[in-house]
């Protein structure tokens, strides 16, 4: 099994995905253990002094003015976990919780949080045992960290609350820890606070969304090319010299992807030969690289933010190498929240343009010779009419999900925390948007391949034939009389989501961007 080593320098997006989705094992580096021990010495020294230090010997948030004596500090740390584990609503997906725990471990291993090495090792042991705390949908404002979600994870480390075992069965956390030989943590000064105070949930969801969207943007370039081909459009608008004079990197990459998919097509270039000659293709076809390319450039910026966060140590207060423990505002989720919202916007627009292309394929007045709704016997058969309805419903929801969460702020903690990021909410709606976008692209794929097969007498591009063969091998049927459509659409969704569309094309085109 793949092993991810965690050290003071942070981690990578690939490691996050490997732990969250691939169940990779986690190990602490020797440097991490040294950094943890050094920072803990600083915390222990401050705890022994009479002067109050936030997070070590005081209350929290609006209660920070109260000094807490040594006899109550263990109780203080337990209480912050128990009281902050106040989430409500449906359970969050297993991969999100694993990303959340792993990223908190990453920050703990930086040596800036002041927890004991034992705390970090217990976190790694819980991940490696496949124990997944129950985390709920609601409870984070994206400021002072993803407090409730992280608290539910910390509760499991203490042997309290419920968690899911590697077999998927929900049990009391204490039972699961005992079954795997893991001793529950007894928290000491600062440790409860250090386990709660980070942007780990929203960052984990950002990292996974970026991985999914990279695949979806490549997939959307492929389906756009297939639609252009099915509509007998021109590939001249994809010429590299046209995109070089507007040098947005994403635009050039999308145009190149489409051009390579269309190489060798006998269908393109007929746009001036039918009964209603076109001077130009419609915007949804002609401007596909510009729209998808702008989204690609947004992904690139979001990766920069994610990489910076992955190299960060987010806690309050933090332990500095010179022995100081300082309060700060690095837990504020604004940088992550903004790009999560931005990605929801570009995902909605990519879905929107894909839906417009699908609608064009189904409209006999605009499809240049294709049967109405790509039906076998229009009137008797409805073809893909309602598949487009479903696609439109998905896009409509994506447009609602594109409304930014990060512009909202509800003050909390008796006005001490009077401006929050709502980054967790931004991440949750982005996950829904990514799922919807996958389905939207799948519907365009289903329609475009059917339309290409209905263009008898002209030879499609080799890449298009490879896609059609892969779809049919996957049991996704082609043109014919009406049938129960939902299973085909579900299979097309899985085909796109699992990367099989890209995998079908690349042996012909070479690696696509």
From TrEMBL:
Domain of life of the organism encoding this protein: Bacteria
GO cellular component: cytoplasm
Reactions the enzyme catalyzes: L-histidine = trans-urocanate + NH4(+)
Keyword flag Protease: no
Pathway where this protein functions: Amino-acid degradation; L-histidine degradation into L-glutamate; N-formimidoyl-L-glutamate from L-histidine: step 1/3
Top-rank EC class of the record's enzyme: lyase
Annotated positions of the 2,3-didehydroalanine (Ser) modification: 144
Residue(s) of cross-link: 5-imidazolinone (Ala-Gly): 143-145
MF-aspect GO terms: histidine ammonia-lyase activity; phenylalanine ammonia-lyase activity
Location(s), subcellular: Cytoplasm
Secretion signal, residue range per the UniProt entry: none
Gene3D superfamilies listed in its UniProt record: Fumarase/aspartase (Central domain), Fumarase/aspartase (N-terminal domain)
Main location: cytoplasm
UniProtKB keywords: Cytoplasm, Histidine metabolism, Lyase
Enzyme Commission number: 4.3.1.3
Record PTM: Contains an active site 4-methylidene-imidazol-5-one (MIO), which is formed autocatalytically by cyclization and dehydration of residues Cys-Ser-Gly.
Keyword Lyase recorded: yes
Gene Ontology biological process terms in this record: cinnamic acid biosynthetic process; L-histidine catabolic process to glutamate and formamide; L-histidine catabolic process to glutamate and formate; protein homotetramerization
Family to which the UniProt record says this protein belongs: Belongs to the PAL/histidase family.
Protein name listed in UniProt: Histidine ammonia-lyase
Organism for this UniProt entry: Streptomyces niveus
Gene name of the encoded protein: hutH
């Amino acid at each position: 099994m793949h092993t991810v080593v965690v050290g003071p320098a942070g981690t990578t997006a690939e490691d996050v995905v490997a732990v969250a989705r691939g169940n990779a094992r986690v190990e602490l580096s020797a440097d991490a253990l040294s950094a943890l021990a050094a920072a803990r010495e600083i915390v222990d020294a401050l705890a022994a002094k009479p002067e109050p230090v936030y997070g070590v010997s005081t209350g929290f948030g609006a209660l920070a003015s109260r000094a807490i004596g040594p006899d109550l500090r263990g109780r203080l740390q337990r209480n912050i976990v128990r009281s902050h584990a106040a989430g409500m609503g449906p359970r969050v997906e297993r991969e999100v919780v694993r990303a959340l725990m792993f990223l908190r471990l990453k920050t703990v291993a930086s040596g800036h949080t002041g927890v004991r090495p034992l705390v970090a090792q217990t976190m790694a042991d819980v991940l490696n045992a496949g124990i997944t705390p129950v985390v709920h949908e609601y409870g984070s404002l994206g400021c002072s960290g993803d407090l409730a979600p992280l608290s539910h994870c910390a509760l499991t480390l203490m042997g309290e609350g419920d968690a899911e075992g590697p077999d998927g069965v929900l049990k009391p956390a204490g039972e699961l820890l005992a079954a795997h030989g893991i001793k529950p943590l007894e928290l000491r000064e600062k440790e409860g606070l250090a386990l709660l105070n980070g942007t780990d949930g929203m960052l984990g969801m950002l990292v996974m969304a970026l991985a999914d969207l990279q695949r979806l943007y490549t997939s959307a370039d492929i389906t756009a090319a297939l639609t252009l081909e099915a509509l007998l459009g021109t590939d001249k608008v994809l010429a590299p010299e046209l995109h070089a004079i507007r040098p947005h990197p994403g635009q050039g990459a999308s145009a190149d992807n489409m051009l390579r998919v269309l190489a060798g097509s006998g269908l393109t270039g007929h746009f001036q030969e039918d009964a209603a000659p076109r001077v130009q293709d419609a915007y949804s076809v002609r401007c596909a690289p510009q729209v998808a390319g702008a989204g690609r450039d947004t992904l690139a910026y979001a990766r920069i933010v994610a990489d910076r966060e992955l190299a960060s140590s987010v806690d309050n207060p933090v332990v500095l190498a010179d022995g100081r423990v300082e309060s700060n505002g690095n837990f504020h989720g604004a940088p992550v929240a903004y790009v999560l919202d931005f990605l929801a916007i570009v995902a909605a627009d990519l879905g929107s343009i894909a839906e417009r292309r699908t609608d064009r394929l189904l409209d006999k007045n605009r499809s240049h010779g294709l049967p109405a709704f790509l039906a076998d016997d229009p009137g008797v058969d409805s073809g893909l009419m309602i598949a487009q309805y479903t696609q439109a419903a998905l896009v409509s929801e994506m447009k609602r999900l594109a409304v930014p969460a990060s512009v909202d702020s509800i003050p909390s903690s008796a006005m001490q925390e009077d401006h929050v990021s709502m980054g967790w909410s931004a991440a949750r709606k982005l996950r829904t948007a990514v799922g919807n976008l996958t389905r939207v692209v799948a519907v365009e794929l289903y329609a475009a391949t059917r339309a290409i097969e209905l263009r008898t007498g002209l030879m499609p591009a080799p890449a298009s034939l490879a896609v059609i063969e892969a779809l049919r091998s996957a049991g996704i049927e082609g043109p014919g009389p009406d049938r129960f459509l939902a299973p085909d659409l579900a299979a097309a969704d899985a085909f796109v989501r699992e990367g099989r569309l890209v995998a079908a094309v690349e042996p012909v085109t070479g690696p696509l961007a």
